[in-house]
Specification:
single chain, about 180 residues, alpha+beta, six-stranded antiparallel beta sheet, 6 helices, 10 strands, globular
C-alpha cells in the first residue's frame, strides 16, 4: 500500500491491525516474525505512519488468521459495499479502491483502479493459489508478469496467477481505468 496520502489509505488499517493483534495475544515482534513484515513496519503501521505493500497486508492478515479485507475495511462495513482506498500512486488520480469482497476458497476482492499517464504499480508475488482478472474500462494498460508482457485496451481483459512478480503500467497519454478481481 504505497501512498502519498497515507492517512486516507490507512484509515482503518492501523486500528484493525492493533485490535486483531491484541485479540490473538501476539506482541508486535511476534506478529512481525510470523508475517515476515519488519517489526518497525508493524509499529509504524499501528501508529498510522507506515507504507506497506498489498502483499505485506496479505501476510499480516494470514498471520492474524483474518482476510485482507478484515485489515483494510471499517469493521461494521458490509462486504458487499466496502469502498475503501487501498493504494495511491504518485499522481493524484492514480488510486485503487476495494469495492467489495465475497467468499471464495479464502476470499475474492473487487477493486477499481485508475492510473494516470506514466504511473506504475509494482506488485509482490502472492502465495500459490492467488489469481487476478483485469478488465480495462478506459485507456490502455501494460501488464508485466514473470511469464509475459501484454498490452490491453478498453474492453479487453487479462487473467493470471499472482504467485509471480507483476506490475501494471500506464504508458499512454490518458487516464487508464480498470477493474481488478483478486481471487484465492
Amino acid at each position: 500500500m504505497q501512498t502519498s496520502d497515507s492517512a486516507e489509505v490507512l484509515t482503518h488499517v492501523s486500528r484493525n491491525v492493533r485490535r486483531l493483534r491484541l485479540a490473538t495475544g501476539l506482541s508486535q515482534a511476534a506478529l512481525a516474525d510470523q508475517s515476515g513484515v519488519s517489526r518497525r513496519t508493524v509499529i509504524k503501521l499501528e501508529a498510522g505512519e507506515a507504507n506497506i505493500s498489498l502483499t505485506g497486508l496479505d501476510r499480516l492478515a494470514e498471520s492474524l488468521g483474518v482476510t485482507f479485507v478484515d485489515l483494510v475495511a471499517e469493521p461494521s462495513a458490509p462486504r458487499s459495499s466496502i469502498n475503501e482506498i487501498v493504494w495511491r500512486g504518485q499522481h493524484p488520480g492514480s488510486v485503487a479502491t476495494l469495492m467489495a469482497s465475497v467468499p471464495a476458497n479464502k476470499e475474492a476482492q473487487l477493486l477499481t483502479w485508475a492510473l494516470e499517464p506514466t504511473e506504475r504499480y509494482v506488485g509482490e508475488p502472492d502465495p500459490a493459489g492467488w489469481s487476478e482478472m483485469i478488465l480495462i474500462f478506459e485507456g490502455s494498460l501494460r501488464i508485466v508478469t514473470t511469464e509475459e508482457t501484454v498490452l490491453r485496451t478498453a474492453g479487453e481483459h487479462y487473467a493470471f496467477a499472482t504467485s509471480q512478480d507483476f506490475s501494471y503500467i500506464n504508458e499512454g497519454q490518458q487516464l487508464t481505468r480498470f477493474a481488478r478481481i483478486v481471487v484465492n
